[in-house]
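Give me structure tokens for this 295-residue protein.
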Amino acid sequence: MKEREKILIVGGNGYVGSNIARSLAPDYHVIATYQRKYTPIPGVEFLRAVSLDDKDHAKALILRHDPKVVIVCTGTNDVNWADYDKNLRQVQISHSAVPMELTPPTDTLKAKFIYISSDYAFAGSDGNYEEDGKTLAVSNLGKSKVSTENFVINRSVNHIILRCAPLIGRGPMDHPSWIDQLRESLFCGRTVSFTKKSYHNPVHISFLTRVIQECLKHDLKNQIFHIGGLSKVSMFECAQILAASLDLDYTKIDSSDQLPQSLINDYSINLNQTLRALKLEPLSLQDSLELMKKT
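Here you go.
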């Protein structure tokens, strides 16, 4: 029996990582790292890994398990949390130090390095950003993502960078997604706040896992792909639409904005190059909602 290709997912216990692990487990030997706790996934081997911002720890992890692919999806994508000064060090560790320390030993093994980035890599001034568009981040989260993207591009000879819009889906019990948190809050009658001034094109998380599967299937390398949907909405609108689709009280969703209405950020990303290269069909927001209901 042919031995299955080994894939190491760093941050595999989180919302994004666990969905990637679950999608790849049927076809690959998947090892997922965690720091404190994890929710078991059938067919996935979980491994505790700490201090991966340390060069020796990162190198030992990679060389010990000898993966053919390393996927890094560490850290929170909560841009507001990341912009608090007290959280800056943790943001830099999760989104920059850890992936940067993992890149060189992955390259030594000639393994593929896949980095999960964010639409916050862009300035948010224009929107409809293309895959080869100029990155100019303004948030702590975005700046960390951009610095890591540049490092990976310059250091890895076999890499894929995936810039993601907000991802719609369910997370594990110990790492709920923003959708899970929204659903729980509204179900309990609590008011939640979302901004009307930040526009994105969210998509179901299965689109991300499909892109990863295509990259592995065709052994693509040294490319940037965008993970987003067809529909551009504010996060406030997105939350209301999601709540309504789940028969929850969307009137409990209010605006968190304090800035003037004229200050609008458009982080929407263009998918044309990604769709052509991978021969994929795009998802509308309604498509993503239907997929979420099935999970």
